[in-house]
Write a structure and sequence with these properties.
about 425 residues, 10 helices, flavoprotein, eight-stranded mixed β-sheet, FAD/NAD(P)-binding domain, alpha+beta, 2 domains, RIFMO-like, FAD-binding-3 domain-containing protein
Length: about 425
């Protein structure tokens, strides 16, 4: 079946951000929407795992939250460790005066997308696959400002607005000639052992006995290495017969390039070298040794920070380009901010695009887009700064700064006993400061 020849809004990319944009536009009464994706269903590789409180608030405004809440784990605690030593935990439950959702929702990206797709299906909005955009050009035969969007299939669609939600290697961004680089000029992306991360959804030979507060997320860093560990939500688990966990580990620089799909053996070698003692398979290190026994999914990630120089562009005599999600910003996944920030980009765009459509003079009202774009870019640069601060703390030279770090950690443990500190950390991670 061929694509429609014309649409008001073309959304390129059907990950969580593209789907959220469609939900937001529909909620605003914009129904002439076309969503395309370059790959078949289930072939997107990104696997975010956490939705922050501010993003839950945004999803609630477009009626796409009940299903997600029924599937995910409501995480109130995030524990931070230095090696085997406990430092502090944030407590999202302390955010109850500021949000209806005083927790982080632990839910795999596949389930997030499934919940959004179910809602769009109820609204009779479909995703057209696989259709890959190859060019955007101002339409030559139209009286109004439109793009001719050409696809690899040979189809051409005229669109007034094109939303680029097509990831870090965005064709939309490239066609609009929008630069994409580190906002601090740090284009080497050398973060030591954190320059690469390996991820996996795994089962162990025996449940790890990790000092994780409640059913929360545990972060461990030591000597420039990093490990994340969190239980999978039971209703979203790839294996209902046993406990499954998401693990993320730094990759020692001496390893070279990590495997595309790390094996159980490779992931365990990382946990033995980089992780906390409680995830070690060595009985000399761990009194309750365990080992990665089965891998349900695994991948690698190269740490990079980049932000588009602008999120909005208009070609002379052409339509408007708007960027959201990874097409607009990428950064270290530390803190679980990427997908959440992108979804908020998408949902915040709905009322702005609606106001633009309703304006008497479309060209003059481009100021609406400029204001939205500047605001969202500012937030992205702030998140990049936060993740870089975290990278800097983890990769700090331990030998040189050992006495200072020991003192700092002692102070951190002491401060971590105070409720206001737990609330402050949770508030910053939640994204609520942006609202």
């Amino acid at each position: 079946m061929s694509l429609p020849q014309r649409t008001t809004v073309l959304i390129v990319g059907s990950g969580p951000c593209g789907l959220a944009a469609a939900l937001s536009l529909n909620h605003q009464g914009i129904h002439d929407i076309l969503i395309v994706d370059a790959v078949l269903a289930g072939e997107n590789s990104s696997r975010a795992m956490v939705i922050q409180a501010a993003t839950l608030e945004a999803l609630n405004t477009v009626g796409c939250l009940d299903k997600l809440l029924s599937v995910g784990n409501k995480v109130e605690k995030l524990g931070l460790h230095d090696g085997s030593s406990y430092l502090l935990s944030s407590d999202f439950s302390l955010l109850s005066p500021y949000t209806k959702f005083p927790f982080a929702l632990c839910i795999p990206q596949t389930e997030t997308e499934a919940g959004m797709l179910e809602k769009l299906d109820q609204l009779s909005i479909k995703v057209w696959r696989p259709y890959k955009v190859v060019s955007l050009k101002p339409a030559q035969d139209a009286e109004e400002q439109l793009f001719d969007v050409q696809f690899e299939s040979g189809d051409t669609v005229k669109a007034k607005y094109v939303i680029g939600a097509d990831g870090a290697h965005s064709v939309v961004r490239s066609e609009a000639k929008i630069a994409f680089s580190d906002p601090n000029g740090d284009d080497d992306h050398d973060y030591g052992n954190l320059s690469q991360l390996a991820l996996g959804d795994v089962a162990f030979t025996s449940p790890p006995q990790l000092d994780t507060p409640g059913d929360g997320v545990s972060l461990t860093f030591s000597d420039g290495d990093f490990t994340l560990f969190t239980p999978f939500p039971a209703d979203a688990s790839p294996d209902k017969t046993r406990n499954v966990y998401r693990i993320v580990s730094s990759v020692p620089a001496k390893d070279g390039t990590a495997p595309h799909a790390p094996s159980a053996e490779y992931l365990q070698s990382l946990l033995d070298r980089c992780g906390p003692p409680s995830l070690s398979s060595d009985p000399a290190v761990n009194p309750h040794p365990t080992r990665v026994e089965k891998v349900y999914w695994s991948s690698r990630y190269r740490t990079r920070s980049a932000v588009a120089v602008r999120y909005f562009a208009r070609e002379p005599n052409g339509g408007a380009v708007l960027l959201i999600g990874d097409a607009a910003h990428i950064h270290s996944p530390l803190g679980g901010q990427g997908m959440s920030l992108g979804i908020r980009d998408a949902i915040s765009l709905g009322p702005v695009l609606k106001a633009h459509i309703d304006s008497a003079n479309g060209v003059a009202s481009d100021a609406l887009f400029e204001e939205w774009a500047a605001s969202r870019r500012k937030r992205a640069v702030s998140v990049v700064a936060l993740t870089k601060e975290t990278l800097g703390i983890i990769t700090a030279p331990r030998r040189v700064w050992s006495p200072l770090l020991k003192l700092g950690f002692a102070v951190l443990r002491m401060l971590g006993t105070f409720k206001f500190v737990k609330r402050m950390v949770a508030y910053r991670l939640s994204g609520l400061a942006e609202i």
